[in-house]
Amino acid sequence: MAILKVVKYGEPILRQKTQPITEINDDVRKLAEDMLETMYSSRGVGLAAPQIGLSLQICVIDVLPDGKNRPVVLINPKIVSGENKIEQEEGCLSFPKIYEKVKRFDKVKVEYTDINGEIKTIEAQGFFAKACQHEIDHLNGKVFIDYLPDWKRKLVEKEIRRRKKAKNW
Ligand code: CO
Question: Which residues are catalytic?
Fold first, then answer.
């Protein structure tokens, strides 16, 4: 296993639409392992391939980082339905120390391919539902600050520019 470098907001890859994975092989399984290790070592609850510089439709999630790891690997995932929008704070490993309130579904149905190549559907709720939506957004070149009102997003971008200048990003 290996810990990979996580790219920060500003890297063009975070804005690109990712490519579907056509074959689930050992390379994909190794990638999933590395992504999980990277996520745990960064104390994150989710990580998407563009964040480690790969434009592929794969993300990993574990919303219970309590020592009993329960990893979920989603390949070519899609949100097929959602209900009950709620506003909650969120962050992102590509936006260190930035937390903002975002409105998302509290319950979603996700269709994906698992690490054995089987097509599955899961129902996610609460924190897990939020993580699924956040990570699947990454696969579509979208990030959480896109949901903020213009004025707020501009403030966040200003803060990021300030930190970049200070070499603190
Ligand atoms: Co993120």
Answer: 135
